[in-house]
Write a structure and sequence with these properties.
Helix content is 36%, strand content 11%. By secondary structure, it is α/β, with parallel strands linked by helices. The strands form two sheets. An eight-stranded mixed beta sheet has the order 5-4-6-1-7-8-2-9, sandwiched between helices. Strands 3-10 form a two-stranded parallel sheet. Helix 10 packs antiparallel against helix 11 and helix 11 runs parallel beside helix 13. Bound molecules: zinc ion.
């Protein structure tokens, strides 16, 4: 997806009762044998909207393909930044951050960034999933990832140690190149992307409808479905298969920004927040997941600044390297919104952090990978 600027394609708690059980700055270590991870990415979602909410200066028709945009100001702009960001992403700011932590508010001195130097999609997905940048991943071409992702490695280990175990890992992507990033041909677990129907598990009425919806709806982007069918397909997999590790990549935040539709971009971010809530509500409702699940939330890259840079990202927009990372769950301390004095977080640290929750050392396996975040255990 992703960048289409002229020539380049960018795409680019057991009820740990929220505040009480985790008011201290450390979390109890996760139990690797029982742990689950839900790993959500929203393509090209800017840290600016996450931490400041909708930018009033961008709410003009010129940033919305000439279409009226006033209604978005009413929905998402409030008197203060704190209120505005809560209006845009209510679950993130009312539940996820108070019970967990979030890196990347540059206004408060917290640094979070990608290390690949390219600031577009496939390099960012590769960095996140493998823990290191790779100069061979220098375009958004849908090539099978030559690197083994932490997901593939974890899944192989589980299958080896637990013969007969199945559907422990799955990856879902609105964008078809997520299939390449995960190396769907080689990885050995379910990967479902773009408009492809999900056929690897027993059909359910809901899944049948989602599959038909994907096949029969108009396609705004030939290589990327809307977020909703992707998310609800992943949800159906989660509920029926109970994977240990679930990865979901959503794409509308990037597409609408490239399309100069700030209103749709905001709505997409707001929907992604509702998806995080639905995932967490499921976690709380299920005894296997409750108290044994960590959720991660980040983008593959940032974007440029207002007034026009927000539409794009890439090497030529150095500020688009800045991202954010939200985390909550059994192994995550309730540190809230991180600020000055917190060590910088790099995108290449996420893979090893996920492995650490399962008691595995990804850096030992892949020495070029970034180290796990020390506070998550
Ligand atoms: Zn993009």
């Amino acid at each position: 997806m992703r960048w289409m600027s002229a020539a380049i394609l960018c795409w680019s708690c057991a009820l740990l009762s929220p505040a009480s059980a985790q008011t201290r700055q450390e979390a109890a270590a996760a139990d690797p044998a029982k742990e689950h991870v839900i790993w959500v990415m929203s393509d090209g979602l800017r840290w600016q909207e996450v931490f400041r909410g909708a930018d009033p200066s961008l709410l003009i028709p010129a940033n919305n393909d000439g279409q009226p945009i006033d209604s978005y100001a009413k929905r998402f702009v409030r008197a203060t930044l704190d209120e505005s960001r809560k209006a845009l992403m209510p679950f993130l700011w009312s539940v996820m951050v108070p019970q967990g932590e979030i890196y990347g508010n540059r206004d408060k001195g917290s640094d979070a960034y990608v290390t690949n130097g390219l600031n577009f999609s496939y390099p960012g997905y590769n960095e996140t999933l493998t823990g290191h940048a790779d100069p061979r991943i220098s375009s958004n071409d849908n090539i099978p990832n030559p690197n083994v992702t932490v997901m593939e490695w974890l899944d192989r280990g589980w299958k080896k140690n637990e013969p007969g175990a199945h559907n422990l890992t799955a990856g879902f992507g609105a964008w078809e190149v997520i299939g390449g990033a995960l190396n769907a041909q080689r990885c050995g677990f379910t990967v479902n992307v773009s408009y492809d129907p999900l056929t690897s598990i027993p059909m359910t009425p809901k899944l049948d409808l989602l599959n038909r919806w994907k096949l029969e709806s108009p396609r705004i982007w030939p290589d990327e479905a809307f977020d909703a069918p992707t998310f609800y397909t992943a949800m159906e997999y989660l509920k029926t298969q109970k994977p240990r590790l679930l990865y979901i990549s959503l794409g509308e935040t990037d597409d609408w920004a490239h399309g100069n539709r700030y209103g749709f971009y905001l709505e997409s971010a707001n929907r992604v927040d509702s998806y995080l809530k639905q995932l967490w509500d499921f976690v709380q409702s299920d005894p296997e997941y409750r108290g044994h699940t960590t959720i991660f939330f980040l983008p593959d890259h940032g974007r440029g600044s207002a007034p026009t840079g927000w539409q794009s990202h890439g090497k030529d927009l150095p500020e688009s390297k800045y991202i954010f990372l939200g985390a909550m769950g059994a192994g995550v301390p309730a540190r809230g919104e991180l600020g000055a004095g917190t060590p910088a977080m790099r995108q290449n640290q996420v893979a090893a952090t996920v492995a650490k929750l399962f008691g595995r050392d990804w850096v030992k396996e892949t020495p070029e990978a970034g180290k796990p975040l020390p506070e998550i255990r």
